[in-house]
């Protein structure tokens, strides 16, 4: 995708100057306005943006007014590419008005999310006029805003495709197919990491990692050969190690990160003292 | 046989004409889905039995639909040398009488709707049926037909859609021959541009320009040409009838487009809810391949182009271009932000630049090529040229498909063709453009139907549905119905559409239950404005139109239901 390759195989674009709220910033052609704003510390609220993924445009919170030569249009900053002479204004009256309604919708959709409450409060929205979604057995605890980041991280970054969207429209939810434990889940936790509202629950319990939000999917953990601790999902560890320097794999595979660190340090010391080891 | 010389086409036309105008009587039953739904197939079966019983020399065939839904089942009778006569509301019980009359060189005049002495098939052929039956009104004097101009439905109801021979008979594929053998691709694109043809799916984008952009996009012949046949608006069935009644007209349009854009691969994306259209298109594609009109070396030109059918699984949002592409590729039909547009490099189907046009857009193309852009531009209004088929439904007296020049006032469609409200009721409003269109009140009925005027009134052209509402219609309920439809069809990707429409529906339900206050009306207005301004795709951007227009034009109906 030439339109959404930020972060992947990055080739620096032509330098351009973009004006945001009256100040000029340097940027690279091809960057999105949202990326520039994040880098420069200009606050634009967003929920579905992740630098390593293509622009998605689902949360509709990053609206700005932008254009050239005095023309202005309301557009999402995550899908808007910078160009020489582009002028952007973040908190115009129109943007503020619509954003407030969107935040009210979010407050109703994810009434248990502190992140949403804080974000809404930051923009002066303290309560919602809309009926709050109340579900007693929601695996995402009333915090999910369906931004899609977990699904996309699972599919596009990890290549697992363990979770997906179920149903459509207001009935949309995210979970495993047929709400059954997933055999495709690596238990990598990328979904947990990218979730903007901390809705996904994952817990390590003994020799297993339990993806509580994903239909109770259980993933076996690898045990450290040295200290016996469970430290990473088995299959994911094997996959990762198989892609590494084979010598490293032979000697250090099967150790948890902490034991691995100790081993490497020990060998370095031995090598300097002229002892055994071939890592000098 | 393969069509490789102009003489082949002429010979096929002559053969086809013997079927359309045989030297014996011909009875044709309108058997599009609409005709079949009101018993047309039984009428056909009884007629077949009656003909067999009498041992009569009568050809019995099926045709598509001329569009006069209220009068169906419709049956055409052609007696050699006489005007074609269209019979209305034919039942099984009429079969024997029809066959007996035909054997006596007559038609059952009490069942006659109109007669057609000659019919212009638009793409260069005028069928002369003959004279006679002077007591039966002429086609053009029937009030439902009088304001109409048939360009797209030029063959609908006259030819057998399952027989390519009858399409050849009325000058079919002559425009494709002319384009492929006598015109440069650039000249075709220029003609389409000059004709002023705009996208009939509703957005009104200039077709010629879209073709030019696609042709100029990188990728050589490895690009796609797609026909959008995912017609999903409640109460709209123009495209269904176009495909069921005259599938070859669509194929011919696509061939001309493929040649103009230099493409090899064509696809028709059609909803599974249209089984008869799928069947007839499949058959038509097969026949066109047999005659060397699709496939390799089309019409002896060395060009290759073929069409495949992709079936949609019944999601309204898949009519949106990016969701449509996702659906064909086997992904969930969820739109993505544009750009990239379909015509962009890597933006279209399977990552190739793709031209997407609506069924009706394609159907206009052979007529433009056959008659020239000047002829086409002379129909309709400036900037809104050509005709448009509307499905006139709801509480209107004469329900049916009405094809009029763009720029025709709503009043003409609803009152002249439609004869106003059903059962003598007063018409209050029309809703245009499907579930995402707006409601236009009676006082604005002098407004011409064109892309811009409809937008100005808060509605859209959409694909061409016109739903009539009368004095008994509760406009709040209308808004509730369409909002419910849009909510159910929202893909759920972006928050204004997914959550906003849901709460719109909840608010309207509150109003209908008498539990809402004036404050709720303000909230309703606000949330609808935000949905329209912030949704990701056209579905969400237009879904609040029914609420916003009824709030603007029929506010008193809302206010009567809420507490102060």
Describe the structure.
The complex is a heterodimer of chains A (280) and B (564). Chain A has 280 residues and is an alpha+beta fold. Helix content of chain A is 29%, strand content 18%. Chain A has eight helices and eleven strands. Chain A has helices at residues 33-40, 93-109, 114-122, 149-157, 190-194, 234-242, 246-252, 257-272; strands at 15-20, 23-28, 63-67, 73-76, 87-89, 164-166, 173-175, 202-205, 208-211, 217-223, 230-233. In chain A, strand 1 and strand 2 form a beta hairpin. Chain B is α/β, with parallel strands linked by helices and 564 residues long. Chain B has four domains: 6-129 and 144-167, Glutaredoxin, CATH 3.40.30.10; 173-374, Rossmann fold; 389-470, Ubiquitin-like (UB roll) (Roll), CATH 3.10.20.600; 475-559, NADH-ubiquinone oxidoreductase 51kDa subunit, iron-sulphur binding domain (de novo design (two linked rop proteins)), CATH 1.20.1440. Chain B is 40% helix and 15% strand. Chain B has 22 helices and 18 strands. Chain B has helices spanning 6-20, 33-37, 40-54, 95-103, 164-169, 174-182, 185-195, 207-216, 238-245, 247-261, 275-290, 321-328, 359-371, 373-377, 410-417, 451-456, 475-489, 495-512, 518-534, 538-542, 545-553, 555-559, and strands at 26-30, 59-63, 75-78, 84-87, 112-116, 118-120, 126-128, 224-229, 265-271, 306-312, 354-358, 380-381, 384-385, 387-394, 400-405, 427-432, 439-441, 465-470. In chain B, the strands form five sheets. In chain B, strands 2-1-3-4-5 form a five-stranded mixed sheet, covered by helices on one side. Chain B is globular. The model of chain B has no long low-confidence stretch (mean pLDDT 96). Chains A and B meet through helix 2 of A and helix 17, helix 18 and helix 19 of B.
